[in-house]
Amino acid sequence: MSEINSSNQSLNNILDKLGINSSKEKFAPRETKDQLGQDDFLKLMTTQLQNQDPFEPVDNADFIAQMAQFSTVTGITSMDETMKSVSEQLSEMRIASTTQLMGHSVLVPGKYARPGKEGTISGVVDLPKTAANLNIIFENSDGEVLHQDALGVQSAGLVGFEWKDLPDDVLSSSHPITIRAFTGNTGDNGELATQVFANVSGTSKTDNGVMLEVEDYGTINPSQVVRFKN
Question: Taking the complete model, does pTM exceed 0.85, yes or no?
Answer without folding.
Answer: no
